[in-house]
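User: Run a structure prediction on this.
Assistant: Running it now.
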Amino acid sequence: MTAPNPAAILLFANSQHLPALEEEESSIRDALDPLVDRGILSEVYVINNASIDAAIASFRVSRLRSCPLIVHIGGHAADGGLMFRSHAGIPELAHGQSLAGYIGAQNRVELVFLNGCTTESMVEGLRNSGVKAVIATSSLIEDKTAAEFARHFYAELSDRPLREAFRLAAHATQIRWRETTGSPWPWILSVDPAHEGWTPAHTSQVPDCAKLEDLVELARTSKLERPVRRRRVLRELQRLTISQHTPRIVLLRGPDGSGRRSLIDDLAHHLAEQSRPQPVSLLRAKPSLATSEVADICARLDKLKGRVLIHLSHANVQTDDAVASLIASPQVRVLLSTNDEIFAGLGESLKTRASNLNMPVASNEELTMVLERVASRLGIDVTQDALAEIVRLVPTYAPRSGDFGAVVRLLEDASAYAEFPSTGYRPGASDPAIGRVTEAIIRRIVAVRSGTPIERIK
């Protein structure tokens, strides 16, 4: 079993009296979020206006219990301790040595960054209790300088060893700091010599992309950059797929919001326009998808040669079971996914045509099965009457009467609408679930046909 990736816990204490802490938090998140996107950090867990109880509870969060930790504490320091905020909203002093003992006793803390005034007194306690590296201060610090140094440090740590990241962050901050103060540099790093070369990537299970058959990496881009990036990536996908005549696996990997799904859609339509079967299985995965899981999925998908797989979204436990059931079914033609929940469309009615990616709507029995799973995902209790009404409506109202994928996408939005729009249709009043689900379908269809944004339909 692979070890969990490290996580970062950010505790900001008494922030109502330190407005700069908001800037510090934003700066640190900007530096650490790319590490989450790359699968190096599992999570950035933040508590603002932290109380002592909240700080202690952060180490007990179940999903973080086994993670190696980076702990950042920002706020005032005084009398050898750190100021937190009591439940009554007033400052409360946490005894420095006791807090150091509690943090060190976690036995999984790689780094503690105490970004408050004169926190050096806590270093020895943290190091003696097992923390491998501590950043603290030897004197008073300015709030804005503290935020700037933290931002530079975590940005450097994303790609550099600990000692080097600390040194470069100090140089970057001192470019401006040296002009405004003649005081000695206040930040110090106390680190085990064997830990000086540590980076978060050393303790994370980063996928070994070299073992994959093909890999296309995506990054988050601005709106202005997106068209250029999409054309470039689509050309690369076309090169990997269209030039090949044997089934292959391409992993399209990137963070949420990087456009993985839409790029796969674009490529699928392009292949359809070429009037040729798809000899490629396209996997759209989050950055944290482990290589061993990819290899296992690829081996299973290899048994599905000649069949079209449009989307495969990484879904932890569900992935293995879903792929296994697909292999066992001689009828499978299309794998659809939504919200990391996998839906298999079974039966000859879902068979695609090379010249047209639209799929005939499934039989009532098949559609009912998918509707039940979608409704369960949305947390809606849909009765048999509601299902019957939806099954009746979908073939009638689908924007392209054979687009099974559109049915699933329509249902994804069902939970967003609780009131009936004035579309001239009133679903069965006997069951509110009919209204919540079917009206969502109607709203989307009206928008598609009229070109009107959904939110403008009243």
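The chain has two domains: 7-203, 209-456.
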